[in-house]
Structure formats: structure tokens, C-alpha cells
């Protein structure tokens, strides 16, 4: 029967009586080069602070226990939604020949997107204003007289035909 190493055995052979943590890269006892600690946000590849969101979830009395992967998930969803809103608001600002995003641009971006508008239907944006909309019956009606004065060459064709054209068609 062949001897097998335990599952948690270190690939570097350690001297007896020593733990694998006390062995350096050369395999000798001594100080171990420690890795610089990475934040949970860095490990998840996120910009949003996972630790702060975890603390807020615990503080909010939503549930008894909060797992870390739940905090990572909430942070990633919030990051995605904010990136989506910022992209749409930047497009709205660019459409208005502006460089800086204002609350007005955020409102226009959210209300023009069906999914974000449904998600944020009860939200009031401070200094956002209102959505531009004019009812059709309030708009001035364009009459034939107004169209004729502006562009006489663009008039719609008339239905009347002369009697001489009718005789030659037959």
C-alpha cells in the first residue's frame, strides 16, 4: 500500500516539527515573504467597497447573517446599475452639447430608458425638472396656406385632372 500525503500538505517538504508557514521560498526555516493583502473589492474586480456594503447590510437588520459572497453580489449589482446610469447620462449631456453631467441629464437618461424608468418609477430627482412633452392637440395645426407660403414647390399633388387628359387616356 502506497503512502499518500494528506490533502493539505505543502508541496515543499518541511522539516519535522516545523509548520509550512515557517519555511521560506528556498525551503529553509526562516522568515516567510508575505503577500500584500488585497481588499475584497480588488479580489472581486469591483470598484464599489464590498466591506462597506457588508457592514451596511449587517447594520440594516435585513437578516441575521450576511455572507461575504452576498455582499460581493450586491456591490456588483450596484456598480453595474451606476455604470449604466452614468453612461446614459453622459450620452444625454453630449446630446445637449454639455461636458458636465447634471441631475437633469440623469433624469432624462433614466426616464428615456424603459428598464431604469420602471426600476426608479417612484424616485424624484432633485433639480431634475420634468420630462419634455407637448400634447398633439396643443400644437399649432399646419394649414395648406402656411405650407404654400413657405414651400410652394412642396405642395401635395391635386386630385383634379383636366378634361383633355381624360380624353387621351382611353
UniProtKB/TrEMBL annotation:
<dbReference type="GO" id="GO:0003677">
    <property type="term" value="F:DNA binding"/>
</dbReference>
<keyword id="KW-0158">Chromosome</keyword>
<keyword id="KW-1017">Isopeptide bond</keyword>
<dbReference type="Pfam" id="PF00125">
    <property type="entry name" value="Histone"/>
</dbReference>
<feature type="region of interest" description="Disordered">
    <location>
        <begin position="145"/>
        <end position="170"/>
    </location>
</feature>
<dbReference type="InterPro" id="IPR007125">
    <property type="entry name" value="H2A/H2B/H3"/>
</dbReference>
<dbReference type="GO" id="GO:0046982">
    <property type="term" value="F:protein heterodimerization activity"/>
</dbReference>
<protein>
    <recommendedName>
        <fullName>Histone H2A</fullName>
    </recommendedName>
</protein>
<dbReference type="GO" id="GO:0000786">
    <property type="term" value="C:nucleosome"/>
</dbReference>
<feature type="compositionally biased region" description="Basic and acidic residues">
    <location>
        <begin position="153"/>
        <end position="164"/>
    </location>
</feature>
<dbReference type="InterPro" id="IPR032458">
    <property type="entry name" value="Histone_H2A_CS"/>
</dbReference>
<comment type="similarity">
    <text>Belongs to the histone H2A family.</text>
</comment>
<keyword id="KW-0539">Nucleus</keyword>
<keyword id="KW-0544">Nucleosome core</keyword>
<dbReference type="Pfam" id="PF16211">
    <property type="entry name" value="Histone_H2A_C"/>
</dbReference>
<dbReference type="InterPro" id="IPR009072">
    <property type="entry name" value="Histone-fold"/>
</dbReference>
<feature type="region of interest" description="Disordered">
    <location>
        <begin position="1"/>
        <end position="41"/>
    </location>
</feature>
<dbReference type="InterPro" id="IPR002119">
    <property type="entry name" value="Histone_H2A"/>
</dbReference>
<feature type="domain" description="Core Histone H2A/H2B/H3">
    <location>
        <begin position="34"/>
        <end position="111"/>
    </location>
</feature>
<keyword id="KW-0238">DNA-binding</keyword>
<dbReference type="InterPro" id="IPR032454">
    <property type="entry name" value="Histone_H2A_C"/>
</dbReference>
<dbReference type="GO" id="GO:0005634">
    <property type="term" value="C:nucleus"/>
</dbReference>
<dbReference type="GO" id="GO:0030527">
    <property type="term" value="F:structural constituent of chromatin"/>
</dbReference>
<feature type="domain" description="Histone H2A C-terminal">
    <location>
        <begin position="115"/>
        <end position="143"/>
    </location>
</feature>
<comment type="subunit">
    <text>The nucleosome is a histone octamer containing two molecules each of H2A, H2B, H3 and H4 assembled in one H3-H4 heterotetramer and two H2A-H2B heterodimers. The octamer wraps approximately 147 bp of DNA.</text>
</comment>
Amino acid at each position: 500500500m502506497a503512502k499518500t500525503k494528506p490533502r493539505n500538505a505543502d508541496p515543499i517538504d518541511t522539516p519535522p516539527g516545523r509548520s509550512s508557514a515557517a519555511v521560506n521560498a528556498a525551503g529553509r526555516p526562516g522568515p516567510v515573504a508575505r503577500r500584500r493583502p488585497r481588499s475584497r473589492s480588488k479580489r472581486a474586480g469591483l470598484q464599489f467597497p464590498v466591506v462597506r456594503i457588508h457592514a451596511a447590510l449587517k447594520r440594516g437588520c435585513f437578516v441575521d447573517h450576511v455572507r461575504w459572497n452576498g455582499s460581493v453580489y450586491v456591490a456588483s449589482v450596484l456598480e453595474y446599475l451606476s455604470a449604466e446610469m452614468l453612461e446614459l447620462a453622459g450620452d444625454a449631456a453630449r446630446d445637449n452639447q454639455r461636458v458636465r453631467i447634471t441631475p437633469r441629464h440623469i433624469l432624462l437618461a433614466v426616464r428615456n430608458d424603459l428598464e431604469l424608468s420602471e426600476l426608479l418609477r417612484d424616485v424624484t430627482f432633485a433639480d431634475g425638472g420634468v420630462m419634455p412633452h407637448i400634447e398633439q392637440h396643443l400644437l399649432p395645426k399646419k394649414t395648406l396656406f402656411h405650407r404654400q407660403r413657405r414651400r410652394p414647390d412642396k405642395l401635395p399633388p391635386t386630385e383634379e385632372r383636366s378634361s383633355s387628359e381624360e380624353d387621351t387616356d382611353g
